[in-house]
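S1.2 Input.
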Amino acid sequence: MRATAQSMSTAALVGVRTRRVVTTALVIAGVLACIASFLWYAKAGSVTPRSGLEITMVAFVALVLGGLRNIGGAVLGGLLLGLVDSFMAAYLPSDVQGLTRALTYTLLIAVLLLRPDGLLQRKVVPTK
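S1.3 Output.
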């Protein structure tokens, strides 16, 4: 899968069945998404048109915090976001706890202003 993701044509040249790899990756992603959504909505109890919006926005913020091109950075962004939310819930007064999402988005804006490629940005060396 990694070879196909890196270069589909090169993987095909060395004998990897790229269509099968792409199909398998999509099936695995679909099954994992199905399991996650079943568990999420089993806990929530009901489904509405906006029921997945908050979790999607949190996941997007975590992805942008870590960097769009770096899987480890996305994991780091998710952990950092979880820690920040937990500390805000634990240490902020109860009348201000409704602003945790606003503080999360403020953190996102700060990261975008200071490090637009994410926390774990890589230096790209142009090839000649």
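S1.4 Remarks. The mean pLDDT is 84.
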